[in-house]
């Protein structure tokens, strides 16, 4: 069984004795900076020159410095900028400030696990990864609750790395829900696998292919959109609340019978073999190399695929239909808060 830590396991004083720099003020950055500040921690935000999020951070009452200044001033530095920019910013602005006994924190293990960032041996290296987008981390905290998170220690130079990680997790509100012990390797590999095979890659491909099959057979795109995309949320909500059996309990017997007899024909041994290949590419570092090279080349494929994705017919009909649903319009307005996506 996994080890899970709660408020009672964490000593908030450990983080209150530290000067904390939050580097980045996007999805995670704004939530970490504000939750820590509200927990009584001495926080400053590090942002690059010309940063669009600077005004938002200042308007929220935070002190904003350059990344280099924030890293120099602080003795705990949490890196919350996009994974693909972390190496450069680390080398240019953070590494020079990493003196003995400081702590370097991450919310995802990618750069450390794949050795893009190799911190000096005399600093603590810790992961606190909320299992939730930043706006949820903030909203739950404000409501007196918390989102679950993961904790991992890559380097314990001071003998206090784990306790310091728990203190940070508590200030962030995550020990209210529970913080699960893991490693940088496990967090990185399972996170990449989940998003590629199931959550983002798998789900998007399934929805788009289902939509194509219905529209190519002559059904209206609007009907195809409702059946293949819109209703997915309702099904996922049920799985989220009570697992797969609870979802199956709520749907009709017709749907349930179709689920048992048709689902495994789609996601079959061949699909599973491909999932295992995808996992191997993650474990061997092949995916990481591919992504890093793509970024170094200026992201030609990535940007082309992004544009191509936007042109899919499901996106066109979706825009029209979502406009009819006032609660979706409102939720979207809501999520244009700092950094939430
Ligand atoms: P975002 O893309 O939301 O971060 C954007 C922020 O980074 C902005 O404030 C941006 O400034 C700033 N930024 C971008 N480039 C630089 C730079 N060169 N120097 C300084 N600041 C810069 O990141 P996320 O919050 O999505 O991700 C941060 C980390 O958290 C990642 O490691 C990610 O894997 C992890 N994570 C993310 C989750 C999520 O839900 N998004 C969930 C769990 C972990 P500006 O826009 O003003 O230029
Ligand atoms: Mg991820
Ligand atoms: Mg139906």
UniProtKB/TrEMBL annotation:
<feature type="active site">
    <location>
        <position position="108"/>
    </location>
</feature>
<feature type="binding site">
    <location>
        <position position="191"/>
    </location>
    <ligand>
        <name>Mg(2+) 2</name>
    </ligand>
</feature>
<comment type="pathway">
    <text>Amino-acid biosynthesis; L-valine biosynthesis; L-valine from pyruvate: step 2/4.</text>
</comment>
<dbReference type="InterPro" id="IPR036291">
    <property type="entry name" value="NAD(P)-bd_dom_sf"/>
</dbReference>
<keyword id="KW-0479">Metal-binding</keyword>
<comment type="pathway">
    <text>Amino-acid biosynthesis; L-isoleucine biosynthesis; L-isoleucine from 2-oxobutanoate: step 2/4.</text>
</comment>
<feature type="binding site">
    <location>
        <position position="53"/>
    </location>
    <ligand>
        <name>NADP(+)</name>
    </ligand>
</feature>
<feature type="domain" description="KARI N-terminal Rossmann">
    <location>
        <begin position="1"/>
        <end position="182"/>
    </location>
</feature>
<keyword id="KW-0028">Amino-acid biosynthesis</keyword>
<feature type="binding site">
    <location>
        <position position="134"/>
    </location>
    <ligand>
        <name>NADP(+)</name>
    </ligand>
</feature>
<dbReference type="Pfam" id="PF01450">
    <property type="entry name" value="KARI_C"/>
</dbReference>
<dbReference type="InterPro" id="IPR000506">
    <property type="entry name" value="KARI_C"/>
</dbReference>
<feature type="binding site">
    <location>
        <position position="195"/>
    </location>
    <ligand>
        <name>Mg(2+) 1</name>
    </ligand>
</feature>
<feature type="binding site">
    <location>
        <position position="252"/>
    </location>
    <ligand>
        <name>substrate</name>
    </ligand>
</feature>
<dbReference type="InterPro" id="IPR013023">
    <property type="entry name" value="KARI"/>
</dbReference>
<feature type="binding site">
    <location>
        <position position="227"/>
    </location>
    <ligand>
        <name>Mg(2+) 2</name>
    </ligand>
</feature>
<keyword id="KW-0100">Branched-chain amino acid biosynthesis</keyword>
<feature type="binding site">
    <location>
        <begin position="25"/>
        <end position="28"/>
    </location>
    <ligand>
        <name>NADP(+)</name>
    </ligand>
</feature>
<dbReference type="Pfam" id="PF07991">
    <property type="entry name" value="KARI_N"/>
</dbReference>
<dbReference type="InterPro" id="IPR013116">
    <property type="entry name" value="KARI_N"/>
</dbReference>
<keyword id="KW-0460">Magnesium</keyword>
<comment type="function">
    <text>Involved in the biosynthesis of branched-chain amino acids (BCAA). Catalyzes an alkyl-migration followed by a ketol-acid reduction of (S)-2-acetolactate (S2AL) to yield (R)-2,3-dihydroxy-isovalerate. In the isomerase reaction, S2AL is rearranged via a Mg-dependent methyl migration to produce 3-hydroxy-3-methyl-2-ketobutyrate (HMKB). In the reductase reaction, this 2-ketoacid undergoes a metal-dependent reduction by NADPH to yield (R)-2,3-dihydroxy-isovalerate.</text>
</comment>
<feature type="binding site">
    <location>
        <position position="231"/>
    </location>
    <ligand>
        <name>Mg(2+) 2</name>
    </ligand>
</feature>
<dbReference type="InterPro" id="IPR014359">
    <property type="entry name" value="KARI_prok"/>
</dbReference>
<feature type="binding site">
    <location>
        <position position="191"/>
    </location>
    <ligand>
        <name>Mg(2+) 1</name>
    </ligand>
</feature>
<protein>
    <recommendedName>
        <fullName>Ketol-acid reductoisomerase (NADP(+))</fullName>
        <ecNumber>1.1.1.86</ecNumber>
    </recommendedName>
</protein>
<comment type="similarity">
    <text>Belongs to the ketol-acid reductoisomerase family.</text>
</comment>
<dbReference type="InterPro" id="IPR008927">
    <property type="entry name" value="6-PGluconate_DH-like_C_sf"/>
</dbReference>
<feature type="domain" description="KARI C-terminal knotted">
    <location>
        <begin position="183"/>
        <end position="328"/>
    </location>
</feature>
<keyword id="KW-0560">Oxidoreductase</keyword>
<feature type="binding site">
    <location>
        <position position="51"/>
    </location>
    <ligand>
        <name>NADP(+)</name>
    </ligand>
</feature>
<keyword id="KW-0521">NADP</keyword>
């Amino acid at each position: 069984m996994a080890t899970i830590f709660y408020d009672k396991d964490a000593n908030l004083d450990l983080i209150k004795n530290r000067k904390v720099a939050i580097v980045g003020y996007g999805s995670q950055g704004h939530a970490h900076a504000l939750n820590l500040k509200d927990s009584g921690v001495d926080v400053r935000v590090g942002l690059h020159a010309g940063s669009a999020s600077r005004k938002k951070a200042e308007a929220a009452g935070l002190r904003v410095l350059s990344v280099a200044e924030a890293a120099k001033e602080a003795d705990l530095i949490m890196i919350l900028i996009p994974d693909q920019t972390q190496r450069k910013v680390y080398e240019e602005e953070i590494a020079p400030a990493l003196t003995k006994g400081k702590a370097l924190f991450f919310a995802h293990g990618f750069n450390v696990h794949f050795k893009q960032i190799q911190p000096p041996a005399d600093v603590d290296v810790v992961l606190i990864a909320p299992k939730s987008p930043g706006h949820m981390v903030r909203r739950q905290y404000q409501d007196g609750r918390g989102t679950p998170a993961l904790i991992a220690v890559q380097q314990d130079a001071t003998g206090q790395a784990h306790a310091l990680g728990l203190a940070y997790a508590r200030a962030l509100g995550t020990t209210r829900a529970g913080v699960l012990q893991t490693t940088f390797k496990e967090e990185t590999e399972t996170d990449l696998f989940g998003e590629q095979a199931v959550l983002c890659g798998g789900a998007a491909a399934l929805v788009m292919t289902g939509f194509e099959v219905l529209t190519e057979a002559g059904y209206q795109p609007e009907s195809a959109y409702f059946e293949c995309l819109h209703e997915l949320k309702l099904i996922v909500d049920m799985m989220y609340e009570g697992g797969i059996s609870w979802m199956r309990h709520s749907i009709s017997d017709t749907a349930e019978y179709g689920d048992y007899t048709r689902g495994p024909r789609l996601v079959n041994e061949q699909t599973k073999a491909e999932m295992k290949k995808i996992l191997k590419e993650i474990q061997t570092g092949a995916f990481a190399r591919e992504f890093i090279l793509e970024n170094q080349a200026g992201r030609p494929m990535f940007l082309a695929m992004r544009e191509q994705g936007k042109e899919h017919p499901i996106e066109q009909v979706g825009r029209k239909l979502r406009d009819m649903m006032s609660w979706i319009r409102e939720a979207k307005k809501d999520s244009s808060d700092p950094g939430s996506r």
